[in-house]
Design brief:
By secondary structure, this protein is an alpha+beta fold. Helix content is about 45%, strand content about 15%. The chain contains 13 helices and 11 strands. A 3-stranded antiparallel beta sheet has the order 1-3-2. It has a 3-stranded mixed beta sheet with strand order 4-5-6. A hairpin with a 4-residue loop joins β9 and β10. α4 crosses α5. The radius of gyration is 29 Å and the shape is elongated. The N and C termini lie far apart (about 100 Å).
């Protein structure tokens, strides 16, 4: 039998892994007595040294809770790097309402709603999937924290927010689903609005809030702004996610804005979420800009006359 120190073992192992490596129970007991293995939890060992990294402690906790267990809750958010800080104690979820008890120092969550799709492996540690992690965090953390976590998930992992929103839309009896659905509704259009539909919604906003109707056909050099108030030289652009949420569109929008500002126009940009979910705030900002531009124009005329 190969001595344990010659086996290429990871830092954390369990009995099943040691048996697969060819070690008998007596060999494992001898390795523990001789300091080659250190018991972390019953049936789970640190290899070569007793102190484990944070990730090592998490893996040990998952192994101790059975083959279907996975890191979850705040530690999962930390492991996915969508949280910057939080409770590092091992939280482990299992897809069952029964089974073994949690070892000392491990917080065990039993969730019959967990499915194989909710399980991932990241850096060698079984962990709840990114989507499931965000759902769990929405249930257990404050709104500011989950909002930051969603932003990090989109930035770091290119998380598809529309797919996640569809997942949490039904059933909404879970508080995690409901909270995450409410948050994502501020980022993802419910019906996939096209640019023309968004422009129609903005015109309706102007009518409801008694703003002067803008010109939608004028051109400024090579550009056709979405909405223009010519006398005030005020431009409003409405950004639909499908046509503006790309690297190319991001660059082109900014080149376009700079060109119009160089010609003396003020440019305001509003997202679909602002137009659809915060129309009063959008109308107030447009109205304030119109008043400001009129005052500036009147002051310029007075100065020119003097």
């Amino acid at each position: 039998m190969t001595p344990i120190w010659r086996l290429n073992l990871p830092d954390v192992v369990d009995d099943a892994m040691l048996r697969a490596a060819g070690l008998t129970r007596e060999a494992v007991r001898h390795a523990v007595r001789s300091g080659r293995l250190y018991v972390v939890h019953p049936g789970v060992y640190a290899v070569g040294r007793p102190r484990l990294s944070r990730e090592g402690r998490w893996l040990a906790a998952v192994l101790a809770c059975g083959p279907a267990a996975m890191l979850s809750m705040t530690p999962a958010g930390l492991h996915w790097e969508v949280l910057e800080r939080g409770d590092e104690r091992p939280h482990v979820s299992v897809p069952s309402q029964a089974g073994r008890t949690a070892p000392r120092g491990v917080v065990l969550h039993r969730a019959a709603t967990l499915t194989p799709a909710d399980r991932a492996v990241r850096r060698g540690i079984p962990v709840t999937s990114l989507e499931r992690t965000l759902i769990d965090l929405a249930r257990t953390t404050d709104p500011r924290t989950i909002k930051a976590a969603v932003r990090q998930a989109e930035r770091r992992h290119r998380l598809d927010l529309a797919t996640l929103r569809a997942r949490v839309a039904e059933p909404r009896t879970s508080i995690g689903h409901a909270r995450l659905f409410a948050l994502l509704s501020a980022y993802v259009p419910a019906s996939g609005l096209t640019d023309s539909e968004l422009e129609t919604a903005f015109l309706g906003l102007c009518a409801r809030h008694r703003l002067p109707r803008p010109d939608t056909t004028a051109r400024i050099g090579p550009y056709r702004p979405d909405f223009l108030w010519p006398a005030e030289r005020l431009v409003v652009e409405t950004d639909g996610r499908e046509t503006h949420d790309t690297d190319v569109a991001f660059l082109e929008d900014r080149i376009r804005d700079r060109a119009m500002r160089a010609l003396g126009y003020e440019v305001l940009r509003f997202t679909w979420a602002e137009v659809m979910l915060r129309p009063g705030a959008v109308a107030a900002e447009v109205r304030a800009a119109l008043h400001r531009r009129r005052r500036e124009r009147a002051g310029a005329v007075a100065n020119w006359g003097s």
